[in-house]
Design goal:
Blueprint: H1 7-13, H2 16-28, H3 37-51, H4 79-90
Length: 95
């Protein structure tokens, strides 16, 4: 996180409550260098859309963004699938 000041100066100028508010805000709306991926992704998307074949759909912005902090959703396994997976994991172990 970037506050534009040194740690010592930040400790002198803001209290822990304000710092916690900044951290919470950053988690909701990232700012600074950590979020430079978005304008670059927009630029990449626009360039690719400009050169794509006629009639093909536009590119999705997510294609150009790194998968940082995005959970990979997987469908829930059935009890039988879980049982099979557990048996497979422990198949090579000796009793």
């Amino acid at each position: 996180m970037q506050l534009g000041m040194s740690v010592r100066r930040a400790q002198e100028e803001i209290n822990s409550a304000e710092f916690s508010e900044w951290m919470a805000f950053y988690n909701v709306e990232p700012f600074g260098v950590d979020r430079n991926d978005l304008p670059i992704a927009i630029l990449g998307k626009r360039i690719c859309d400009m050169w794509k074949a006629k009639g093909s759909p536009p590119f999705d912005i997510d294609y150009f963004l790194p998968n940082i902090g995005k959970p990979e959703w997987k469908e829930a396994m059935s009890p039988m699938e879980m049982q099979h997976k557990i048996k497979t994991m422990f198949a090579g172990m000796k009793k």
